[in-house]
Design goal:
Length: 626
């Protein structure tokens, strides 16, 4: 008997086992594990991301405001790198050897396999020169992108700007890769998903010299690029440009709204800056300069500045008084240079007395509206002052005050309409009344309102009791309609019938006789309804305020103007609003002398036919008028 006979079975079994292991491993490598296949393909394939052109931005009349220009980024994939002539690359791209090392180190730290930017936004000439010698630089390629261009240096705060994605975005959104661009602020940010389009992909075969030779499999794996959607925004570019021109000597803001739609016609924040500064390789440098500017041009005053509304708020006091039936249109109150109760005194200016509601708005009487506030807070249907105050506050909330209006731009701030609990904490529950907080009645005290809220309030009065959420989007290419929240009417708690006497009073503010505080805002053949205001400023001169809408019937524009540190509302805010209204409704400004005076280019001298207007401008400064 052969003692080694059984060993052959062991040997055969070992061979079979080894064979099975090899088969399983080969199956795993060739079928289950794609890494080797991808490695082989990456040596033979070149995959290029095709970046879409960003959507254009037009104004409400179809005029292009933002378009694109070509830019060229040098991309690198660290795994594909081979030894290359560093000196020649430095000469082409005009960088140092140390710069090359630093850029390659950054690319490797990002990803060894995924391409990233080696150098961004090189000139066309340099990109073309490198493209001719690309066979000498395996792992490098030229990527075409687009940068923003502007037809006019306006609307920087509304349009926003585009910049590179940061790490937080890379981690939260897989669409973006290192070096990609994204809307950072403004419309560019709000409508990024429409403007950016969709990236495409092209797969090519490479030869041994790393040169692209043909499309892989006839382009079956390619993904077509989809360009970004064009936007039509609500701004009127001519009006926006004109508003920025008028405000160029000042600090402040102008917000104009179409009452019938809530579309923002102009969004001016002064001082402003050219949006072209925040484009290209100098973005960080220019942004740093803007940040350090003591006038803070990056601060969007139209949405973020919080001011007392001043006497413009008297229109709202009248509305609430009528709604609560504590006054009628014919209710009269007397005024003797101010409001007096014992030692308590709030000053007012000389005007006819007594006045009814319409006359009180026309003459901007402080005493009248403090008395209205007294009637509201002492209304017998409420148990106490706090309950009456909270009811008053609820009316204000229905008009869009306190909370942000939620325009698309992300930097909008709220205003401040304090709750009754605020006064309970200061004075003690039950230890305050209308006298304690009477300054609220004339738009001072703790009240804070943003310019866009002021413009929205004006649009609400023009509409006799409702408003649309202010918005900047008019149309998105390929999208049937804009967000429904911008087409929904928001009704206030004030009956529509209460608005008529307020509108009549606002008409007389501009078009009335003696006592009217804004006759200098009058426009020939257009009935402007307005209200002046002055916001107290503890840090310097008071702020000049004016709200208005026009024409009186079927209003097409509502506007709020704040000019910081310029005194009474009639001094500069009213003329600026008047000129803006004239520009929008007629397409031109005939009162060029007035425009020059507002911009402080000429002294206030007008043609003889307008002496009455100039006389009013001069005389308003002689008393504490609005």
């Amino acid at each position: 008997m052969n003692p080694y006979r059984d060993r052959r079975y062991v040997f055969v079994a070992a061979i079979i086992l080894v064979g099975l292991v090899l088969i399983v491993r080969l199956f795993q490598i060739q079928v289950l594990d794609k890494s080797y296949e991808q490695y082989a393909l990456s040596n033979a394939q070149s995959i290029r991301v095709i970046y879409p052109a960003r959507g254009l931005i037009h104004d409400r009349h179809g005029k292009i405001m933002v378009y694109n220009k070509a830019a060229y980024d040098i991309m690198v994939t660290p795994r594909l790198l081979e030894p290359f002539d560093t000196t020649e690359l430095c000469r082409i791209l005009k960088i140092s050897r140390e710069g090359v090392k630093e850029r390659l180190a950054t690319a490797r730290s990002y990803s060894y396999l995924v391409p990233s930017i080696f150098m961004k936004q090189v000139s066309y000439e340099n990109a073309a020169l490198l493209q001719e010698k690309m066979f000498q630089y395996p792992g490098f390629y030229v990527q075409t992108r687009t940068l923003r261009e502007y037809t006019r240096p306006i609307a920087a705060h509304a349009l926003g700007y585009v910049g590179e994605v940061d790490q937080a975005i890379l981690e939260s959104d897989p669409y973006y890769q290192l070096g990609d661009y994204i809307g950072i602020t403004g419309v560019e940010k709000a409508y990024e998903k429409y403007l950016r389009g969709k990236k495409g992909k092209q797969v090519f075969l490479k030869d041994v010299h790393n040169q692209t030779i043909e499309s892989y499999q006839g382009g079956r794996l390619d993904i077509p690029v989809k360009v970004g959607a064009n936007l039509t925004i609500t701004l009127d570019a001519n009006l926006q440009e004109y508003g920025e021109k008028l405000m160029s000597p000042y600090v402040g803001s102008v917000v104009a709204i179409e009452p019938a739609t809530g579309e923002v016609l102009a969004l001016v924040s002064a001082p402003s800056f050219s949006p072209e500064l925040l484009v290209g390789r100098n973005l960080r440098t220019e942004y740093g300069k803007l940040v350090k500017d003591t006038l803070n041009p990056l601060f969007n005053r139209a949405l973020m500045a919080q001011y007392p509304p001043g006497s413009t708020f008297k229109t709202i006091m009248g509305l609430i008084g009528l709604q609560e039936k504590v006054i009628t249109v014919n209710t009269e109150h007397s005024c003797s240079y101010g409001f007096y109760v014992g030692s308590i005194h709030t000053a007012c200016h000389l005007h006819d007395t007594p006045l009814n509601l319409i006359g009180a708005i026309q003459n901007s009487c402080n005493t009248y509206f403090i008395r209205v506030f007294q009637s509201i807070l002492q209304d017998v249907k409420f148990n106490n002052t706090a309950d009456a105050y909270d009811n008053w506050r609820n009316h204000l909330l229905s008009m869009g005050f306190n909370a942000p209006l939620k325009i698309e731009l992300t930097n909008e701030l709220s205003g401040n309409i304090p709750k009754s609990g605020y006064f309970n904490r200061i004075y003690g529950e039950g230890h305050w009344n209308y006298l304690t907080i009477r300054s609220l009645a004339i738009g001072q005290g703790e009240l804070l309102i943003t310019p866009i809220q002021m413009a929205n309030m004006t649009a609400t009065i023009a509409n006799h009791g409702y408003y649309f959420t202010p918005h900047l989007i008019k149309e998105i290419e390929g999208v049937e309609s804009i967000d429904q929240r911008f087409t929904e009417k928001h009704y206030t708690t004030i009956d529509a019938s209460s608005y008529e006497p307020i509108v009549d009073g606002m008409e007389l503010v501009v078009n009335g006789g003696a006592g009217s505080t804004a006759r200098n805002a009058k426009i020939q053949d257009i009935i402007v309804c307005g209200k002046t205001g002055t916001a107290e400023n503890p840090h310097g001169n008071d702020h000049s305020i004016f709200i208005a809408f026009a024409p009186k019937e079927n209003p097409r524009i509502a506007i709020a103007v704040y000019v910081e540190n310029q005194g009474f509302g009639t001094t500069y805010a009213a003329p600026i609003a008047s000129l803006m209204i004239e520009k929008y409704l007629t397409g031109e400004v005939k009162r060029t002398w007035y425009e020059n005076w507002v911009m402080k280019l000429l002294p206030p001298v007008a043609p003889a036919v307008r002496k009455d207007t100039i006389s009013n401008v001069k005389n308003e400064a002689n008393g504490p008028q609005e």
